[in-house]
Amino acid sequence: GENVEQHPSTLSVQEGDSAVIKCTYSDSASNYFPWYKQELGKGPQLIIDIRSNVGEKKDQRIAVTLNKTAKHFSLHITETQPEDSAVYFCAAISPRAGGTSYGKLTFGQGTILTVHP
Amino acid sequence: NAGVTQTPKFRILKIGQSMTLQCAQDMNHNYMYWYRQDPGMGLKLIYYSVGAGITDKGEVPNGYNVSRSTTEDFPLRLELAAPSQTSVYFCASNPSGRRQETQYFGPGTRLLVL
User: Fold this and answer.
1) Residues B20-66: tens digit of each pLDDT
2) Does A95 touch chain B (CB under 8 A)?
3) Contact of B55 with B67, CB cutoff 8 Å
4) Burial of B98 (0-12, 13-18, 19+ CB in 10 A)
5) CB distance A109–B41 less than 8 Å?
6) Rounded to whole angstroms, how far apart are CA atoms B32 and B73?
7) Contacts of B97 in chain A (CB under 8 A)
């Protein structure tokens, strides 16, 4: 099955700096890669996603890049703010899930991002 | 819309007790999921459902049961609670379960088994 590795596990930056979180996946058939932000005491919330036919996607201060050949994708946050502090999860959807059409979402281990004022 | 709601927010169980974690969504989504999140780990899929009356196992189904009698509700049942089931449980849903479709998560239920 799919395996998603996420690095680093913790990341500390100064306000205004950039933050980069990297993920690798194992299943070359995976075709959808969402990123979730989880604030303390809350469920994960989608912040950006990318599909396998796109190499880069940007939404204001957040961008995601995908390298299908190397099977890795990254989250880039520019001009970080204290409210960006949270746990960030990458995920991948593999279409191979017991022969059904259901796409199984496999999560990385998470990155605790702390932005210091 | 309230989105995905979960109750209770927090519960302490004794070993061997049983309980049901409630999950409901008001978005008319067909697919619903239960995940557990252990400290320092990502989310692991316990069970999922593709529609009312249809459920299937995920990665870590042992010790749990689910039912899906309506589109809106997807309860998770723990029959004999064990310390290994101490975790945070998240319910999620999406409209059709297509491979390139995001899932919407509830706020979670924190469970402590002592």
Assistant:
1) 999 999 999 989 999 999 987 789 999 999 899 999 998 899 999 99
2) yes
3) yes
4) middle
5) yes
6) 9
7) 101-103
